[in-house]
Amino acid sequence: MQSANDMKAHSKTYGSFIGMLKWAVPLIALITLLVVILISD
């Protein structure tokens, strides 16, 4: 069983989360913009 204060694992998990968030937010914004444009036509 690993310690609850495992900073290496925490840093790795947080880094991968932030990395995915950097790509997911703009992608979701583009999809939303596309849907809004399609609806407004």
Please describe what this structure looks like.
With 41 residues, the chain is mainly alpha-helical. Helix content is 83%, strand content 0%. It contains one helix and no strands. The protein has one helix spanning 7-40. The longest helix is centred in the middle third of the chain and has 34 residues, at 7-40. This is Aa3-type cytochrome c oxidase subunit IV.
Question: Helix content range of the residues, please?
Answer: over 70%
Total number of helices? 1
Please state the CA-atom Rg, rounded to the nearest Å: 18 Å
Low-confidence stretches are: none
Cα shape: rod-shaped
What is the number of strand segments?
A: 0
* Biggest sheet details: none
Oligomer designation: single chain
Structural class: mainly alpha
Strand content: under 5%
N-C termini distance: 57 Å
Features:
single chain; 41 residues; mainly alpha; 1 helix; rod-shaped
SSE blueprint and pairings:
Layout: H1 7-40
Summarize it.
The chain is mainly α and 41 residues long.
